[in-house]
């Protein structure tokens, strides 16, 4: 997300403009807003977990509540005082920093070798749960141009916009899915392993396709330096190759053969992630891709295991500061401007997102040998969108691939599909238990003597 996203009309009233704050007042507002964001968002996450929902769902809901849709509508003076336009760049910078650190950790954790003996099933599930929602999303973007135009999109959609519509339906949030798998005791079960493995493959596919859409659009905010699309692609491929070939050996030498102090090592790695994020932004991509790439090329321990002394502080910093990203994302959500077309689009998009993702994932898992209820479990888990979807939507909004009303629709779709995951898992488990009870009773009943 760029600092341009936080315009004065979304963060404050005209009477509290950026120039009306002295440096001391600016610092005071920033500190006060930061305190509110941290306490409110983490409290929302705690409450969500108590209600059986992922922590991130509570943080996202809190971010929306602190935006113009709720706080800005119910208490406009308080909203203008808490979030004046002058603190926008500072809050955006903190949000970008937390996002880079978080995605650096995600890239470091990403390991497709975990597919193991179920590699074929997991890959098939990933391909199906990507291809079907992708085709439906892109097809709907082409078929329902008038409805999208009512939501602020141009009548003639660019190829990047069409592709992005498909990615919006195909995305799965690996961090949220992994947390749900762990909290439901599915980590060592077949559907849990297949879902997590497939989500890792799906994540790699979605990020790659999203990168192509952003390169075609130019990345937004003047990114890309005015270069044509082929040049951006060529330079991006060259940068990825250079990073993989040169940075990985250098990092291996740094991490394995030297004894740097932990704080210095952490500073160097986060600096590497931030530098990589800056390069991809200059090339016309979002900073998220540079952060992911940096995490992927960081070598693991010699046994192939993750370094807990590296991963733990990364996740701690990211989880602490991610609420800034949720709050700034909520600033672009305009619930009070939703029209009848917007609400209808939300219902249709959510239905399509649920049916295509769960249906394709469950069908592919069933063809891979899982029984009916285990296959449904895989499909339900892959329907979790959460944070990954929100990151993609912000990248699309910055790049001009989304209008503000359509962004609002898709944010609420991401929230709704993530909220549905836990109830659908419980319903599937109850149906499985109910079906197995009669079978168990029949198998243990005394059979009549037939002689």
Supply the key terms:
single chain; 451 residues; mainly alpha; 19 helices; disordered C terminus
Can you offer a commentary on this structure?
This protein has 451 residues and is an all-alpha fold. It is 74% helix and 0% strand. The chain contains 19 helices and no strands. The protein has helices spanning 8-11, 23-50, 55-65, 71-74, 76-82, 88-109, 119-143, 145-150, 159-170, 174-183, 190-217, 229-256, 262-282, 287-297, 308-330, 340-367, 372-382, 386-398, 404-444. The termini are far apart.
Question: How would you concisely characterize the structure shown here?
Answer:
Helix content is 74%, strand content 0%. It is mainly α and 451 residues long.
